[in-house]
Every structure is written in C-alpha cells, then in structure tokens.
Amino acid sequence: MKFKIQDWEIISLGDHAFMFSLEAKVDSKIVQKISALSNFIKSKNINGILDVIPSYHTLTVVYSITNFLHNNKSVNEQINNFCETILDEFKDQYKNVIQVIKEVIKVPVCYDSIFGIDLENLSIAKNISTTDVITIHSASIYEVYSIGFLPGFTYMGIVDEKIQMPRQDKPRMNVLAGSVGIAGLQTGIYPSNSPGGWQIIGRTPWDIFNRDENILSKFKVGDLVQFYPIQKIEFDKMNEHKL
Amino acid sequence: MSIKIIKKGLSDSIQDYGRYGYQHLGIQPSGSMDFFSAWLANKILGNDLNNPVVELHFPSSQILFENNYTICITGANFVPVLNEKSIELNEPIQVHKNDVLSMLQPIKGRTSYVGINAKLNEPHWLGSHSYSKQTILKDQQFNFSDNNSSQAIDISQTTVSKSNKSLIEEVQKLVFDHNSPIRLIPGPSWSLLTDSSLTALLKKSFTITSQANRMGFNLMGTKLNLNVQNNFLSSAVTRGTLQLLPNGEIIVLMADHQTIGGYANLGQIILVDLPRFAQFKNGQSFNFELTSLEKASQLYRNIYEKFQH
Q1: Which pTM value belongs to this model?
Q2: Rg value, chain B, Cα
C-alpha cells in the first residue's frame, strides 16, 4: 500500500503500521512538521493506535489490527480515509501554529579532556584548536531529529561542518552515560552506559533518561537544544545534586 | 510468595503483549515472541490473554514455585518435568509449594511458555511486565500473587474443554507448520532491490543462522543488492521488518528490536506468521511469499476472534 496526499507519501509497514513521509532530508522545517503531526495525532487519542514515532522526515503509526480497523471493510480504504481526514485537519491547524517560537533547552557540558576523550583527536583531524571546537559546538542551536538506539538517545543536528567527524571505525565497548558525541553532522548524548562509536567531546551531568514513569526522556523529537560549557568543578557539583 | 528462578537458563524472561506507547522515546516494545502460544497458555488457564508468562529458551531456567499454582506449558516442546516427573503440554497442571519445573530436551520449536493462574505484581514498568534492562529484579524472583485470582479453572478436571481443544489444534498448526512459506508485505525499500535480488528474495530459500535472538534473526541465503546506496535517514521499524544489512544479508527484527533503523526496510512479515517464524530453530530453511494487506489483516482477525470465544 502506497499513496500520496498533499506533499505526503503514505506507505504500509506490514499489517500493523504505516508511515507518513516527506522529502528525505535533514531539514529543520521538515522535522518540525513531522513533530507537529505527531503531536496532532497523539492529541486525538485515537482508539487502537499503539505508537506514534517521529524520526527525521517520517512519522510511523503502529496500530492494533482489531481495535484500529473495522471488520468487513477494505483495509486500504480505511487507512487512506484515516490519513486523508487527519492530514486535512492538520493542514488547517498547522498554518495557525507555525509561528510559535519554541524554548531552547540549555544543556551544561564539561568539555574537560577527562570526559572529552576524542576532543584532541578531533581537533587534530579538523586542524582547529580544542577551544574552537568547544566554541563552535556550543554556539549552534540544534534540533532533535530522532530518538532511538537506546531509550532516550537523541540524534541532534546540524553540526557545523568545521567540526563534523565520522564515527570511530571500531565502536568502544563502553561509553559512559552523559557522554556528548559527534557522528557526522549529528551530535547527541548517551543516556546510559553503552557500546558506541561516536566521537566523545564532553559529558553532561544531566540525567538524560530516567526510568521514573513521570520523567523518562529529557528530550523529544522537534526540541531545540543548545550546549553551554561548564568547568569540572561545576560538573562535580551538578552531578552530586543531579540538578 | 512467588516463583523463583533457581538455575538461570540461556535467555529466559517474563513477557506479556509488550510495552507500547513509548517507542518515540526509543523504548522498545518487547513482548512474547510466539504470542499465540503465550495466549494459548492463558486461555487454557482462564486468564486474561495477556497475563504475563515465563518465556523459556533451551537450555531453560529451573523454576521453583513458592506457592500452589495451576500452570500450563505451551509452545516449544522441551520435555517439561515437574520434580523429575514428566508433564503434558497444553494442559492445566497443578503445582505445589516447592515443586521444581525443569526442561530436559529441545524436541520441537524454539520458545516455550509457562502460564500461571496468578497475577504478577513485580516487575512492572510503563504498563507492561515484559523484561527490559529497566525491570531487572534482584535474585530473579517474580512476585506472583498468592490468591489465585483467575477463577475459571477447575483443577480437579484434568481434561481441556472442547472449544479449547480445537483452538489448541489450530494454534499447533499455525505455529509449527514448517513447510508453508513465510508471508510478507513489501516495505519502503522493496522497489529499490535489483531485479535479480527481487527474484532471489521470492524464489530462493533462506536459512535461520545461529545469530538469532530476541532482537532479530539473521538469515543466510542469496546476498541481495539495491539500486541505490544502503544508507537512509533512520525511521521507525516494526516487529517482523526485513532489514537489508550492508553485506547483503537480511536480518528479521523480532520482539526486542530497536525502535528505529537506517538500513533498507524491504518489507514486513505479517503478524499471523510471526509466531511460526519465531519458533524456527537455527538451520531451519524456508521461503518468503508475498501477500496483501487485506489478506494479512483478515487472517489475524480470524485467529484473534477464536481466542476471544
């Protein structure tokens, strides 16, 4: 099943999910529209929808066959009708909310070499001082394009070309929670200790993911994030109090 | 009072239907691999279909019951014994305090289920009892309630009701048929396969490798190629997704799959065939076959409704 509505393409992912898709680009406008559609569908609390998952240029809806669909009606037709109705309503609504300015989440990062274990290599590879790497990394406002790999792991972008660097050839066995890394045009934070191949340039004292049902992930797709440098002594203080 | 794992198996866990509603935060859904057999255990016990069950692989854990329960073992046949006495599959079994359940030998299938006529208290996280790193308990102890909360079962009556008998037969056929093809629906990257790869995917057989676990089953078979580079912006994947790896091999994503993926998404195995696929042992060969969304939805609904009666 594959069809087009407005500038959206809709395709089935098997028999219990379908995906809305825009042009495949890492693009602020696109991810904001995806995030808005995600919020819109969730706000409707539709019976039988199990998950709504935004990521870059796509939004995937996972559903229960028996609760979301009616018996004895064409499934293709039902999904087509559902998408048409949703996208029509969304189009009208999106026009009105597009001007809302989002708050930027300011995340403290200690770029000290004991945390930023790849900072020096990156500075050598890119022929730029470590101070400049820090200045450039913390100057940009990033968007959260996707969350996955681990609970709460964020894919943010777009990293300034001057400090872009591909993943390590061989992933590390254990990257510590809070580590801030770069992988190509993306930057992100490890929410828990995990194997990983990103170039680690610092660490945040924040808990990025907490299993408490009322907290969970610090970020969601579409959020705006900016890093700010802190000294080791501030890191230790914040880490102690988990500010 | 509860049940206790006294000897840990290779990869055993508590499962229910899974933890949905949090995939946008990267939290995987999990859930029983062969959910038909898990439902069947609960059906026979008169439980809610999605009451948590113990999912066992071989070599399996040994389970100590710290209370009297009625249990039911479904799915794979690992030759279950209670205190070294052989017991039946697909039947309610009375267990007493300090009884020990063990599995002797993997005769048929890959995943076995132990249903229990009690509610599970802990572990529980985000609406589900399914195992995840966030639900690990000390001592592998699972706190099932003492008051046997499901009332439907009459323990003195060892025979299974007639309607359940036909359901058992139906589930056996559905889950342990090794000859029928595994049906799939084309996904976003289907049309990017080269013509010869498309033909190979539908005509050649594939084999389950030893790289197979609750996250995914790696397949061995003809290596497939795309007409474009196998590198996409990550998007959500689902249980049953055929991902094409950079080396041309397929991995089928299973219950503990990550929420997003950046490799080609060729298509999805339909829900009704996933339990059967999940029971394939390493080395099992099979063929894929295309089916339609309409047919897949109807097949699932048909079997689901039989469980509701």
Answers
A1: 0.94
A2: 20
